[in-house]
């Protein structure tokens, strides 16, 4: 019935289906919150044999007169109009799952004490739900979701075997006493419970707990003293709380399985500093954003031998201890909005996020160093230096050269992955780079003023060594009306218009690379990006005429008052043997051209969005000064 537009069930339409056991009414466009099946005159059918009912957007206010639930195994009615299921105590021995999520008119649940086999109760986004009956006797219940139940001021007593509890954005002030003894609890999500004042004083029985999320619990000011006894804990999220100090029980010797710790503040929240003990040596991801840290303790890094991601965003220190180099596995460093930071020590990284570091003058030997670039499964690169206007220009050029070298290695690694695994689609990989400037790097050997490039390539440009295009754009923000600068997401889309060898249009290939939470307060920035998930169609043979059109958008809508001033393209080839995995690259590989992403349409003959000839008529004629063919020979075209 997913393909039916609308249907109005008559009262007796299903009345003869006495043995109906399976009924599924659903919408293929569930995200539109549409309801296709209507019962304007009510439903007179009574289902006594029903085992499975899924009715998305059910218009009935109650199931009291339509279902005898004794044999029911699964009841799934997300986005329904149900206000209550039935009254009284029902025999529910077979019932294993109830899903009433997003049923915004649901006010109460019936007594479920007879549902001894109930395993999963999904009530998220039931915004009118006022209370839930005691669940402590539901011995099989392992999953309970109450997130966004905005009127639910108290949680029910909980069963001993519960493993997953979600209660995000509920107005609870305290947790039920039964939560202290949940020895099998694995996942506890209390995000944005803004009225929650405290956790249980004794949590030592949470021996199975792996994930504790307290983000946005803005009245929570302390941990239980025995939190260090949670030996299974892997993720601890406390950003947005007013907890200032982690208990001494969270040390290198405790919480040995802890991999992610967030102790940051939410933007705009009062910063009160933080006091940290020595942390677990198994930490992989540490977030200390907006903590008002004025000096990074030198011993902070002494135990963090496994750390891969460090977020120090929005703090007030001027320097980072050189001991950070001991974090040999560190891949991603976020120091955005650290406006007093002047110098960054030497670090071999995959990603550096230094947006709005307005005092940053130096990055000591910051590079994707030859000895540290290995062909691993991590196929990404990120350099964000927007509004870093004090950076020395020669240093910035050096950083970009190193980044472009990494792009070439990244591309070769992607193709190796593609060949080794013999897969039809390339793995998800990205490169995102942007910094203040108004020139396209010379590495992009096809360049043009404006947003459109029309290029004549070599006749044999599309061969077995070709792996794609690298793209670059200079974006001007000076026409943006916000006096404080541009503050938003931005996507740069490139459309590539191709013709086949027989002269017919082969359609449009599309590339897209995005930058999130961009803040720019100067006229121009340079953007570069890659996404290897998309790849040209190998079954086609293309002519040498190519048109590239760049545009700016947010969520597929064009961005006004911001424009592409210049753009550049580089054809990338694989012209050297691929190294083995984990093998390092030497300088000779830098002559190898490599990749950018483009997506073949499923119907390449169909010209979407814009006609190829129309683009060609408006195109700015540009020829590259040097375009290498697959064999590395230079051919002459003019810019």
UniProtKB/TrEMBL annotation:
This is C-JID domain-containing protein. The keyword Electron transport does not apply. GO terms for biological process: defense response. InterPro entries: C-JID, Disease_R_plants, Leu-rich_rpt, Leu-rich_rpt_3, Leu-rich_rpt_typical-subtyp, LRR_dom_sf. It comes from Acer yangbiense. Residues 606-616 have a biased composition (Basic and acidic residues). Residues 436-574 form the C-JID domain. It holds the Pfam family C-JID. The lineage of its organism: Eukaryota, Viridiplantae, Streptophyta, Embryophyta, Tracheophyta. It comes from the Eukaryota. Keywords: Leucine-rich repeat, Repeat. Residues 606-639 are annotated as: Disordered.
